[in-house]
Write a structure and sequence with these properties.
about 210 residues, Rossmann fold, 7 helices, 9 strands, globular, binds adenosine-5'-triphosphate
Length: about 210
């Protein structure tokens, strides 16, 4: 469970989250929406323990994500809006992911195949030299292989072509059962089949929070 109670977050004098409260429970599959600057990424970063709230509390499975960062992140598969500038080649990246998160290489290969990402010819290629869509497919494959209780994807299909988006939605339909899945998206039409809750934020507040 993710519990956000009366959380405010300021950068300088600008309020990015304004006394926001939300609870996410197992089987919640959420489309988190809102205009640029609404506070969606700030909310995610508080859940991941990147930021201290100015007031209020954030708990992930009862743990404070700042004080218990390692334990909290063990349960979260996160794919960011912009892929990080990883210098490793894909073979090294897979080995690193397997060692650091105790997942099987075969699980990553399986999900890469499901995303129709042909890993074999790219194993010696640096991650940062992949196309935007290939990077996203690779990060999605690793994140699904981890089988975490919580999946958080920030605009996961932004760089995917229509076929890859279909694959993503088909895969995620199976992979979000009995989990918390939070998707930041500007494309609710695409996500409608997948999500069961829609939250709309603006100016650091929740404007609507509805089942779908
Ligand atoms: N590290 C930071 N330093 C200063 N201001 C920040 C920082 N991170 C976010 N902000 C500000 O907080 C507000 C909310 O930003 P945030 O990135 O959370 O919005 P968002 O809803 O994710 O937007 P987008 O859809 O464009 O990704 C914005 O006004 C932004 O400028």
């Amino acid at each position: 469970m993710i519990e956000i109670h009366n959380v405010s977050k300021k950068f300088g004098n600008a309020l990015s989250l304004d006394n926001l409260s939300l609870t996410f429970k197992k089987d919640d599959c959420i489309a988190l929406m809102g205009p640029n600057g609404a506070g969606k990424t700030t909310l995610i970063r508080l859940i991941l323990g990147y930021y201290h709230p100015n007031s209020g509390t954030v708990l992930v499975n009862g743990l404070n994500p700042i004080q218990e960062r390692i334990r909290v992140l063990q349960n979260i598969s996160f794919v960011p809006q912009l892929p990080p500038p990883i210098k490793l080649n894909l073979d090294e990246l897979i080995s690193y992911a397997c060692k650091s998160t105790k997942i099987e290489k075969n699980a990553i290969l399986h999900f890469a195949k499901e995303m129709e990402f042909d890993l074999e010819p790219n194993l010696n290629k640096s991650f940062f030299k992949l196309s935007g869509g290939m990077k996203q497919k690779m990060l999605i494959a690793i994140s699904l292989a981890r089988q975490s209780d919580i999946i958080i994807y920030d605009e996961p299909t932004a760089n995917l072509d229509p076929k890859a988006r279909d694959n993503f939605h088909r895969l995620l339909k199976n992979e979000t059962r009995s989990k918390i899945a939070l998707f930041v998206t500007h494309r609710l039409d695409e996500m409608k089949e997948l999500v069961n809750r829609q939250i709309y934020m603006d100016l650091g507040k929740v404007l609507t929070d509805e089942p779908l």
